[in-house]
Amino acid sequence: MSLQAITEQFQAQASKAPAMEKTLKFVFDEGVVFLDMTGETPSVTNDDREADCTIITSVQTLDALRKGELNPMMAVMSGKVKIKGDMGVAMKLQSLLS
Fewer C-beta within 10 Å: the chain N or C terminus? Predict the structure, then answer.
């Protein structure tokens, strides 16, 4: 899966994301996906900006999480997913990953 494909999927799912008045950044080897959920309509870009919560992982791990092949808690505990910043934002991500 490419960074462009991930960005497009997040854009399609962003309207389902809970209102949280926060920003979120995913960092992959391939690049960055930045979600700004501070406005009425969430925006998804590939801008590398400061965020309330940053999630560092691989495209393969994200894909496994989306397919339900990997438990999110196990991914964090095993180091496949690293979370920096507001953990509360990360806990509300299920709507973007499904």
Answer: C
